[in-house]
Design a protein that fits this description.
Strand order of the largest sheet: 12-13-14-11-10-16-17
CATH architecture of the largest domain: 3-Layer(aba) Sandwich
Shape: globular
Number of domains: 2
Helix content: 25-40%
Bound molecules: 2-aminohexanedioic acid
CATH superfamily of the largest domain: Aldehyde Dehydrogenase, Chain A, domain 1
Number of helices: 14
Structural class: alpha/beta
């Protein structure tokens, strides 16, 4: 299938990357075969400061460019992504280990958010509100916010940055990106592409978008920089717990998209053919490495004897291997640490009385340095503390239930609250699940799985999933500041609440 390092280097050169690939301390590997792809130099604290300062200067100019012209930059970027979709997806596959169709889907998600943002650039509307005073008008105005720091994870190395960047740019903000230290090459490619497009738009100031490769020290420097008005961070709940108080201490704004422990309930009236396909994609797809991956399955005891054997059979047929190969559905885990976490979760599951199907490591020809596993189904006697944790691997814990209300209670009894689903043909069950006493997640679906959301809706979760909302609907409001304006066009000065004074 070819040398991953040579392929990555060629792709990066084609994107016009000028950052040296053999300059330093940050070793980048392909999860496909463990090959070293590059040694980047980590950004220093001084570089972070200078980059944020340049972004702040760019913001001061960009905020006065009419929003539809800002949208023009994003429109052109979306066009560039359309032209380079296949190549960018190839690089995503090499650096993150995603299979081709999912890598292409990730780039499509970038294109979709660009289209959305272009439309948005002619909206960004505020309300007009009835005033209690005669000849007064109340209104809301949305203004650009400042520098938006974006921290992304390896599993969606480019789409999550695009969600943030497309919106931030039309909202009049500048963006400074710290990609995952595991996937900085795709970030360099995206940056080079956006820089080329920005160079051709006279209104786009230098420094409007920047990328800072490096590890957690770079993230901390961004977190603590008072000129970073909004820090949008995607990663584990532990990362969010570290970042949020630091940003709050300087009265900055945070948008957190953290871990999930996503559940699905399969009721007696579920269409089991659909449920089966949805479960396999959500739980085993992306090798279980989405924040929306399905991790907990609650099956009604009347359908479990039918559904479980079918699931075991489907899991056994999944082709695990080099994600560049046709027919492969399950690529590698990201690295040795992910494999160790997978192994220890399975050991703990077995100690908790779990019955494991699959989960063994798979050796893939020509990919000795990669960590490949067969997705695991684990029949659990109950929701133990292990099941309450997010293990970023293809492990699906399966439990049975008798009463829907009890299943919903169990579903909600974990720290996270990102994505959820119910499979049912019963209107009452569906509405209960979507109601105030139903799923407590930011995403609640009916007859589709937990993963693979479209960009049109707001994306994010509650509780330890962080509370932030990205992408569609009114998520743009996080990237702007709101001013409430009261305008008096009378010749009097009536005070609100009937107060009289001077
Ligand atoms: C993530 O895993 O961090 O809904 C984002 C989904 C994708 C995005 C996932 N559209 O699965």
């Amino acid at each position: 299938m070819g040398n991953t390092a040579a392929q990555a280097r060629k792709l990066l050169a084609d994107f016009g990357n000028t950052v040296p690939l053999e300059a330093g301390d940050l070793a980048v590997h392909s999860p496909i075969d463990g090959a070293r792809l590059a040694n980047l130099r980590s950004s220093t604290p001084t570089e972070v400061e200078a980059t944020v300062a340049a972004a702040q200067a760019a913001f001061l100019a960009w905020r006065m460019v009419p929003a539809p012209r800002r949208g023009e930059l994003v429109r052109r970027f979306g066009e560039a992504l359309r032209r380079h979709k296949v190549e960018l997806a190839e690089l995503v596959t090499i650096e993150s280990g995603k299979i081709r169709t999912e890598a292409l889907g990730e780039v499509q998600e970038m294109i979709d958010i660009c289209d959305f943002a272009v439309g948005l650039s002619r909206q960004l509307y505020g309300l007009t509100i009835a005033s209690e005073r005669p000849r007064h008008r109340l209104m809301e105005t949305w203004h650009p916010l400042g520098v938006c720091g974006v921290i992304t994870a390896f599993n969606f190395p480019v789409a999550v940055w695009a969600w943030n960047t497309a919106l931030a740019l039309v909202c009049g903000d500048a963006v400074v990106w710290k990609p995952s230290e595991k996937t900085p090459l795709t970030a360099l490619a995206c940056h080079a592409l956006l820089a080329t497009v920005a160079d051709e738009l006279p209104e786009a100031p230098a420094g409007l978008s920047a990328v800072l490769p490096g590890g957690s020290a770079v993230g901390t420097a961004l977190t603590d920089n008072p000129e970073v008005a909004l820090l949008s961070a995607t990663g584990s709940s532990a990362m969010g717990r570290a970042v949020a108080p630091r940003v709050a201490a300087r009265f900055g704004r945070c948008l957190l998209e953290l871990g999930g422990n996503n559940g699905m309930i399969v009721t007696p009236t579920a269409d089991l053919d659909l449920a089966l396909r949805a479960i396999v994609f959500a739980a085993a797809g992306t090798a279980g490495q989405r924040c929306t991956s399905l991790r907990r399955l609650f099956v009604h005891e009347s359908v479990a004897p039918v559904l479980l054997p079918r699931l075991v059979h489907a899991y056994a047929s999944l082709v695990v291997g080099d994600p560049r190969r046709d027919g492969v559905l399950i690529g590698p885990l990201i690295d040795a640490a992910a494999f160790a976490a997978h192994q220890s979760a399975l050991l703990a599951a077995s100690a908790d009385g779990g019955r494991i199907h699959g989960g063994e490591s798979v050796s893939v020809q020509g990919a000795v340095g990669g960590f490949y596993v067969r997705p695991a189904l684990v029949e659990m006697p109950r929701q133990t503390s292990l099941v309450s944790q997010e293990t970023f691997a293809p492990i699906l814990y399966v439990m049975t239930y008798r009463e829907l209300v009890a299943a919903i209670e169990l579903h909600n009894a974990v720290p996270q609250g990102l994505a959820s689903a119910i499979f049912t043909s019963d209107l009452r069950e569906m509405e209960l699940f979507l109601s105030a006493c139903g799923s407590d997640c930011g995403i609640a679906n009916v007859n589709i799985g937990t993963s693979g959301a479209e960009i049109g809706g707001a994306f994010g979760g509650e509780k330890a999933s962080g509370g932030g909302r990205e992408a569609g609907s009114d998520a743009w409001k996080s990237y702007m500041r709101r001013a409430t304006n009261t305008i008096n066009y009378s010749r009097e000065l009536p005070l609100a609440q009937g107060v009289t004074f001077f």
